[in-house]
Amino acid sequence: MSRVKGGVTSLKRRRKILSQVKGYRFGRSTKKKMAIEAIHHAQLHSFAHRKDKKNDFRRLWTSRLNAGLRAVGLKYSVFMKDLKDKNIIINRKMLALLADERPETFSRFLAKVK
Length: 114
Fold this sequence. Notes:
- There is one protein chain.
- The chain is mainly α.
- The chain has one domain: c-terminal domain of poly(a) binding protein.
- Helix content is about 75%, strand content about 0%.
- Helix 1 runs parallel beside helix 2, helix 2 packs across helix 4 and helix 4 crosses helix 5.
- The model has no long low-confidence stretch (mean pLDDT about 95).
């Protein structure tokens, strides 16, 4: 059986790995072994951080909403309870957007809740 040299395939594999780590610093962007490890860690963290991002945004909306409510003299927890008691279903993202970018609309909304 004839000998097959794998140079072309190896180079293709290496180029594929190194294209994924473009922009990384030091040996992680130039050395295959370090690049593979960097890709592996990046994929692990990206999964976890995609999940964390949802919590981060909810926390941000809550704090923005609370800031808008404190200006009027209300508390976040009391406001959310009032919403539930009146069966008003609107998510925190929309409420935070109103409180932050459209205060006049938010004040009209508060008048309906009270």
